[in-house]
What does this fold into?
Amino acid sequence: MLTKRIIPCLDIKDGQTVKGVNFINLRQAGDPVELGARYAREGADELVFLDITATVEKRQTLIALVERIAARLDIPFTVGGGVRSVEDVGVLLAAGADKVAVNSAAVHKPELVDAIAREYGSQCLVLAIDARRTDTGWRVFIHGGRTATERDALKWGREVVARGAGEILLTSMDHDGTKQGFAIELTRRFAEALPVPVIASGGAGTMQHFVDIFTEGKADAALAASLFHFRELEIPALKDYLHENNIEVRR
It folds into this structure.
């Protein structure tokens, strides 16, 4: 059995780590370099860095900050935000990222997924999907959750995997920051339908929520932010709890 992964997320705005609820009401959560180094020491399996305003500000990801964080890590590092081209991916990999997450640009130009997978391999490409429940089902949102699309979330997941995405970072906007639990039904649908790993994001509040998303939700990895940033939950204690609940994790 593959071990389940615990992944802290650094949402970055103006060079600082921030966290909100349902993608709004952001508050500062600390220095991203120090937070990243702390998570690596504490046993995080990977780290995700998302420059959450790069796309709407029409700029590239904060490369110098990526380099500073990467220099302190010995765990896989995924970077996203403002990625619009194959060349952007190359720059981030050169700066120290192991994987690159793409979201809005792929929705605007789906063939970008094919091009990145061809150039750098599917193992480097994480497709981030921000989904919100609407009257017509789970819909894809872009531009940091600001813009609704007509795309059905699961159909989009199937398309990008067929185009070469190696992993899905699935965020429920309805659950984000609420600490009421992950979107189990949504995550399970993705995990059962797709042949690539699914990272669940949005809603973690207790250790039991991680058990639920790994068992009922069938996620391969679980991502959280404020829960770890503000030490409401410590990674070593979480991994002990998962182990006690017969969930395989790296310790």
